[in-house]
Give the backbone structure.
Amino acid sequence: MIKKEVCKIISQKEIASDIYELTVEAEFVSEIKTPGQFVHIRVGNGWDLLLRRPISISSFDKTLNQFTMIYRKEGKGTSCLAEMVPGMELDILGPLGNGFPVEEAEIGDTALLVGGGIGVPPLYELSKQLRAKGVKVVHVLGFQTESAVFYEQEFGETGVTYVATVDGSYGTKGFVTDVIDSRDLSFDCIYSCGPTPMLRALEQRYAGKKMFLSLEERMGCGIGACFACVCKQADDPSGVSYKKVCSDGPVFRAGEVLI
Amino acid sequence: MSMLNIELPGLSLKNPIMPASGCFGFGREYSQFYDLSMLGAIMIKATTVEPRFGNPTPRVAETTAGMLNAIGLQNPGLEKVISEELPWLAQYDVPIIANVAGSLEEDYVTVAKRISQAPNVHALELNISCPNVKEGGMAFGTIPEVARVLTRRVKEVSAVPVYVKLSPNVTNIVEMAKAIEAGGADGITMINTLVGMRLDLKTGKPILANRTGGLSGPAIKPVALRMIYEVSQAVDLPVIGMGGISSAEDVIEFFYAGASAVAVGTANFVDPFVCPTIIEQLPALIAQLGFDHISECTGRSWKQHGQLAYHRA
Ligand SMILES: Cc1cc2nc3c(=O)[nH]c(=O)nc-3n(C[C@H](O)[C@H](O)[C@H](O)COP(=O)(O)OP(=O)(O)OC[C@H]3O[C@@H](n4cnc5c(N)ncnc54)[C@H](O)[C@@H]3O)c2cc1C
Ligand SMILES: Cc1cc2nc3c(=O)[nH]c(=O)nc-3n(C[C@H](O)[C@H](O)[C@H](O)COP(=O)(O)O)c2cc1C
Ligand code: FES
């Protein structure tokens, strides 16, 4: 069930340059089903910043009724969010959408988790859950530059973690695909979240592999009512068949929708 | 006694609050939050003869206290709306206002004729004002004579009263209102969105794939109020007002301007509970303002003292 709740901020800290980790308390944590679901946050109480901001749930704790998000301070809304301190309250709608299917990876399989920039956060909970199930996890995380790198150590605790930076200031120079090639990584399935060109590259290179991709789209309602966030179904590219990123996704099996 | 019930052509409303077309889908999503029978009515998403995919994404962009959308009338098409969406909505005790769209006069006639026969459709809302479709659409809403003829044709085939949704993207809205009155419309809904644009700071290009989109939300409220103020005095048709409503106070302002009922659009995205919240808050506000019934507020901005309340139930 989706709930709208006023949530208390438990903690907020800047964990990399302009990257914030925000933990809040919410009753609806009990409703979270899969890693990779997201929430829709109302920023401020007025109507200036009208639309809610979609942010992924990066980890959660059902015993404490808390969940954590990691976001990049980008525009007006996230800048406003970054100003908030523990004890303040946020109006949040969640949990939304369908996340990554943990059940698709078998015990003993190797799962490759590929994250790009601000697409990295939802993979964290996924990694923990896969690992707990007995799936071997390997992470390839891509960032712009050294100062933007976050959670390398946290991911390192659940599996081997490779980092790439576009400018080469940290880890391998280049893109996530360069790491996969140079390390000659082998795996049974891929889970990924990040910029669309990265998802597209993965889908093309590893066609035929079991793969789940989390998409991003600009949203209005976040719950499936406004048709803002639709994408075409891959089996009907010129037709009218569609999926909504907010309520059918954001995670899709590779090949299900056109990206 | 209720302070909120309103009688309009085809519509016996428990209260004058309804979600606006395109901002509520066909109700399914919002039924997770509250019982849809609480609403005065529901204006469903525009329906066209054939299913439509709509425009490429991005389809929405935020603006100060508003948003732009260029959905492009995406909908499952007439057959699906009649066979799946309307029967699903029939479980609720709420009248449906079907939003009818098309590119050709024939399209409107086809949709209107069929959809007006659905048992829970109590009125039609002719969408002659969508700014986001290339063909037709907009001409129907900007050329008075074209609007008059279309209204007449649809009236001939519709089994229920016909409301026409006016576009604010015209120089003379009163002229449009008079034209659709002459065409035989039973009521007016207004306003649809205002054509606008946003540009991306980094690329210099429009944020919306469609380049332009329709502006909605609190930012357009003053424009809507002004237009309703003008139109409600110039024609003898009830007006269902919309444009940026997000609170009970906003509703009263729309009534003062001349509305007999209102629709809430964009605010549903911000607060999914906005309609039930407004419905709950209205009676106290009406009493506080010294009225016995909300209908007494209609047209207060221009009515002479002592003039009778219009459409009192
Ligand atoms: C399902 C989903 C999950 C996401 N998870 C995360 C996350 O975990 N961490 C994170 O940092 N970011 C995430 N994003 C992106 C995040 O929503 C945007 O960075 C954020 O909305 C920007 O808001 P702003 O006010 O700073 O920017 P502004 O440019 O001021 O925003 C203006 C409008 O555009 C929208 N918008 C701008 N950029 C994006 C974008 N990339 N995607 C969708 N809408 C956008 C905003 O929501 C707002 O409505 C996610 C997006 C989606 C769709
Ligand atoms: C995302 C979105 C989709 C819309 N779709 C339709 C539509 O299909 N038909 C229609 O007549 N109006 C449509 N509208 C216009 C609204 O019904 C309403 O007239 C307008 O948004 C002003 O009200 P608001 O400011 O409360 O949103 C749409 C508006 C939005 C924001
Ligand atoms: S954001 Fe409204 S349908 Fe997805």
Observations:
- DSSP finds nine helices and 14 strands in chain B.
- Chain B has a mean pLDDT of 94.
- Chain B touches chain A through 39 residues (CB under 8 Å).
